[in-house]
Amino acid sequence: MDFLHSGLADVQRHLAFVSVDPINWKFYVQVFSWSVTIFESYLLLRQYPLYSKTSPPEALAPHISKEDFAKSQIYGKDKAQFALFSKLFSQCVDSAMLQYGFYAWCWGAAGTILGKLGYGTDYEILQSIIFSFTMYLLSSLPTLPLSVYSTFVLEEKHGFNKTTPALFVGDLVKSWLIAFALGAPFLAAFLYIFQWAGDRFVPWLMGFMISFQLLMVILYPTVIQPLFNKLTPLSDGELRSRVESLAGKLHFPLKHLYEIDGSKRSSHSNAYFFGLPWSKHIVIFDTLMQQSKPEEVEAVLAHELGHWYYLHPTKMMAISQFHIFTILALFPAFLHAPPLLRSFDFPKHVAAKPPTIVAFLLFQMILTPLEAFISIGMNAVSRHFEWEADRFACELQDQLKEESMKDMGDRLGRALITLHVKNLSTVWVDWLYSAYHHSHPTLTERLKVRELLSLELAIISICASRIF
Ligand SMILES: [Zn+2]
């Protein structure tokens, strides 16, 4: 542990200037955040002309009808226009909030509310909780009309929306209540660790964050998700026996197999698994089952089980722990930095003894450009995992020595095409736009890989049959 602390102290020495130099952080954050927005808008402008193409890529042409292709192009165009508008709008709002001292105002308002409740400002954790929720609620208001428009105009126009206004409001209120019910104790514990461990908070906070993530793995499906969707055990039939048999052959610790009423809100479709290492649950969207045949859904699950087989969720979690560690390791320099708070319009008496939550918030804003690069890296890793999972599904026949699985790659390809076509997903994708935004390879890329893979498998089996 001492080695860790001396390493961390070294980092702090290099960053010592933060606590004394009067740097104009606000200006930098404005420049950073506008740069990211301008870059993302540029990506959208690169992608936009591709929605005017009149025919699909060759690899897809046999699988997508003219009408479906035309529909997906119009949907993509509408979404891109909306994305550009909401991006610029949100950036203007954020930028104005930053410029006119919104965060400092929120901290003051939280102090006033605290006073009305009969507490003094020495109750920093309580004030931090009030501050966070005031900020969360107020800053989500300006973008609320955007989400109303996206659901009831954009998705509606293209036939995806199934959400009623009552469901929309219910979801919103529920998500606010959950944010408060989970967020308040999380924040209290998070801030308490800072008070308790002083500058040696890094390992303690890491331990806490990992425990919280594991707790969420249990709580999300059992408590949170049922508030929004209904999960019912998948009824007996071809699909159930296919999935159970596949899970059994792979020794996947399947505890429950659910069907989820995704169609309640939208007709977009999907499938996923979750749970602890010894007890997993698979969830299939009712929409996926309506759109694809049981053997194709089985292939989608074979892909999902590929993620499990290669420990992708665990690897992703390890990467995100490393990410959190880096952030926490840099943070102490910003924790005791009055000039940082002063540059964001906080009054002198607050800046003199910076509240942890405020320092953390401002620190995260400063990290914006770094986070943009990290998300590109994370997407690249995720795309690699998708490729591995596809390959896993295609090679199941060899692994399990099951003749019946020889067409798994074809079935997966058909399911992917159906998913893509029914979801009107974008067909033509600009490479830079995709590298930045997509955690999954594009359909064309996946089909190409699958073809290469089946070619490779065919060659291997030809070679094998020659040898033996
Ligand atoms: Zn996947």
Automatic annotation (TrEMBL):
Keyword check for Transmembrane helix: yes
Protein name from the UniProt record: CAAX prenyl protease
Catalytic site: 304, 390 (proton donor)
Cofactor note text: Binds 1 zinc ion per subunit.
Species for this entry: Lentinula edodes
Peptidase M48 domain ranges (all copies): 234-448
GO molecular function: metal ion binding; metalloendopeptidase activity
Sites where the protein binds Zn(2+): 303, 307, 386
Catalytic class of the enzyme: hydrolase
Entry keyword annotation includes Protease: yes
